[in-house]
């Protein structure tokens, strides 16, 4: 079927309207009319070929919310009209140990991302949510329990939400645990909201005094300006877990010294060049660990959406229309958004 979309034909060209093709729904497929699509920094990196391997035409978007418009004959979990979402994954092998454990993001044969991944469908690679419609296997469609008025602000949960929720759950954020969130941007603002909702003592780290009140408003119990040596020193050896969302290279030792024995610093920001190598003694003297985390599996993403619906958690967003996307990318590079852009696909 023919579908309207917005995408790029080359790394040095602005995004533009285009027509793409979607497969007709198969027996296990769900067809979704896209209402909103969140804008992720990964979209920018891919469109502008800042990460290797971009395939053109490139239609980004992996924070998709909309409504079911058709289902295949064997689909039983979704019905027409239902509010649903699609995140960063649209397929995996479904047979390896990781997939068997509900960790499709670590599929040992390689998952299929929502855009820029090989697929049998035309044009040979997946095309994402900057479009009016998408067809996805029912195994990778998620139910949305938020009120209809919050649907746009749910979209970033499908990337920023699960990217922060998964490590917070894995490292047991909750009552009696002290958790730090480094960075107050698209990822960090979700980390603060989620850690607070999980019941952890939540401390936000920022380089800017001007963001102190914003972090407190998001749910932080306290805020540390990381450039203030006295404020940092006051928290030495006190954190069970620190989630670092910053996507720029920086000194990790400053945060490792804040961890308790057996504490973990988890990195989810992806800088364009490596962090300076940490001092090994900050690790071995406290049996501290540096770890990473990648989004989450489908079951955990559904768990996150249900948790957020129960707690009334959504992303703080600014709405845009498709013709504003390049301007939004430029502003995103300057961190000029609080805290995620979401595109209204009705304006396509």
UniProtKB/TrEMBL annotation:
<dbReference type="InterPro" id="IPR020843">
    <property type="entry name" value="ER"/>
</dbReference>
<dbReference type="InterPro" id="IPR013149">
    <property type="entry name" value="ADH-like_C"/>
</dbReference>
<dbReference type="InterPro" id="IPR013154">
    <property type="entry name" value="ADH-like_N"/>
</dbReference>
<dbReference type="Pfam" id="PF08240">
    <property type="entry name" value="ADH_N"/>
</dbReference>
<dbReference type="GO" id="GO:0008106">
    <property type="term" value="F:alcohol dehydrogenase (NADP+) activity"/>
</dbReference>
<dbReference type="InterPro" id="IPR036291">
    <property type="entry name" value="NAD(P)-bd_dom_sf"/>
</dbReference>
<protein>
    <submittedName>
        <fullName>Aldehyde reductase YahK</fullName>
        <ecNumber>1.1.1.2</ecNumber>
    </submittedName>
</protein>
<dbReference type="InterPro" id="IPR011032">
    <property type="entry name" value="GroES-like_sf"/>
</dbReference>
<dbReference type="Pfam" id="PF00107">
    <property type="entry name" value="ADH_zinc_N"/>
</dbReference>
<dbReference type="GO" id="GO:0008270">
    <property type="term" value="F:zinc ion binding"/>
</dbReference>
<dbReference type="InterPro" id="IPR047109">
    <property type="entry name" value="CAD-like"/>
</dbReference>
<keyword id="KW-0862">Zinc</keyword>
<feature type="domain" description="Enoyl reductase (ER)">
    <location>
        <begin position="7"/>
        <end position="343"/>
    </location>
</feature>
<dbReference type="InterPro" id="IPR002328">
    <property type="entry name" value="ADH_Zn_CS"/>
</dbReference>
<keyword id="KW-0479">Metal-binding</keyword>
<keyword id="KW-0560">Oxidoreductase</keyword>
């Amino acid at each position: 079927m023919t579908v309207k979309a917005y995408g790029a034909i080359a790394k040095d060209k602005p995004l533009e309207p285009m027509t793409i093709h979607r497969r007709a729904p198969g027996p296990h497929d769900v067809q979704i009319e896209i209402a909103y699509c969140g804008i992720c920094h990964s979209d920018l990196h891919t469109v502008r070929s800042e990460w290797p391997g971009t395939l053109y035409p490139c239609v980004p978007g992996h924070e998709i919310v909309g409504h079911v418009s058709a289902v295949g004959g064997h689909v039983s979990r979704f019905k027409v009209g239902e509010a649903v979402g699609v995140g960063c994954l649209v397929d995996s092998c479904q047979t390896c140990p990781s997939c068997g454990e509900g960790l499709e993001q670590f599929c040992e044969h390689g998952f299929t991302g929502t855009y820029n991944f090989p697929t049998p469908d035309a044009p040979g690679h997946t095309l994402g949510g900057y479009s009016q419609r998408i067809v996805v296997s029912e195994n990778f469609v998620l139910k949305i329990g938020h009120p209809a008025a919050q649907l746009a602000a749910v979209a970033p949960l499908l990337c920023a939400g699960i990217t922060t929720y998964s490590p917070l759950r894995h490292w047991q954020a909750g009552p009696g645990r002290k958790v730090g969130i480094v960075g107050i941007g698209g990822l960090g603002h979700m980390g603060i909201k989620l850690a607070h909702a999980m019941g952890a003592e939540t401390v936000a780290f920022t380089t800017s005094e001007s963001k102190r009140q914003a972090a407190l408003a998001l749910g932080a119990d306290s805020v540390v300006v990381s450039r203030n040596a006295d404020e940092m020193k006051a928290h030495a050896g006190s954190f069970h877990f620190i989630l670092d969302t910053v996507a720029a290279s920086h000194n990790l030792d400053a945060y490792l010294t804040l961890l308790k024995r057996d504490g973990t610093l988890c990195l989810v920001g992806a800088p364009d060049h490596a962090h300076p190598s940490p001092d090994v003694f900050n690790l071995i003297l406290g049996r501290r660990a540096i770890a990473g985390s990648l989004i989450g599996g489908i079951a955990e993403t559904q768990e996150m959406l249900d948790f957020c619906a129960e707690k009334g958690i959504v992303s703080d967003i600014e709405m845009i229309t498709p013709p504003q996307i390049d301007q939004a990318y430029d502003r995103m590079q300057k961190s000029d958004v609080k805290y995620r852009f979401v595109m209204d696909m009705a304006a396509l």
